[in-house]
Amino acid sequence: MPPGGVVEQRRRPLQDRSRATVSFVLEAAAQLFSESGYHAVTTNAVAERAGVSIGTLYQYFANKDDLLMALLEHHVAAAKTAISTALRDLPASDVRSVIAELVRFTLAHNTAHPDLGMLMQRYAPRSTLLQDHLSETRRLIADAILNRLQATRRSLSERELRLRAELAARVIEQLSHSVALDEPVGESTDALSAEITRMVVGYLHAPPNSPDRVE
């Protein structure tokens, strides 16, 4: 079982060659965890798939648990960076465009390695760094949605705008993980992305809530 706290690698990859080695090992681990499941995979198998010696693997990762946590942290950090880059190119006042891009990206990212989503939900509480990455990514998505809502939904209070942005970010995150783990039969990723986008945009464009009735 992965240890508590932040993963501590034995050696930081400072040179390009070292960083490439770590990248090969992480990709090999992702492939094997997906193919065989976390518990069935050994560090020897990861080293063999990555094309490195077991000694080289242990220079960067203390054991399989360290490897798993580093892989999850890398997975989330990469998503955060990619989302941040994509958002810079989207219209500042177009809610549908930003939702469509966020859904498309998160669905594709999670579908590439669906097993990592399941492992992340199970082991995230054991890594402070992983929790920080997840919180920052969720905040990045919520802030992007909020900025578009503030420019287009002036009839809503600031409190309701923030609530809708936060809930929309969580819906996108959770549905993307759920669909990646158990994709509805006969539906393409594009079709699923369009449906999730339609649902989230519909919620964001709904009229203000009335305190006197439940909608």
From TrEMBL:
Pfam families, sorted: TetR_C_15, TetR_N
Superkingdom of origin: Bacteria
PROSITE patterns hit by this protein: HTH_TETR_1, HTH_TETR_2
Record-annotated DNA-binding residue ranges: 42-61
InterPro entries for the chain: DNA-bd_HTH_TetR-type_CS, Homeodomain-like_sf, HTH-type_TetR-like_transc_reg, HTH_TetR, TetR_C_15
A single MF term (Gene Ontology): DNA-binding transcription factor activity
SUPFAM superfamilies found in the cross-reference section: Homeodomain-like
Residue ranges constituting the HTH tetR-type domain according to the UniProt record: 19-79
Keyword Oxidoreductase set for record: no
Alphabetical UniProt keywords: DNA-binding
Transmembrane intervals: none
Protein name, per record: TetR/AcrR family transcriptional regulator
Species: Mycolicibacterium hodleri
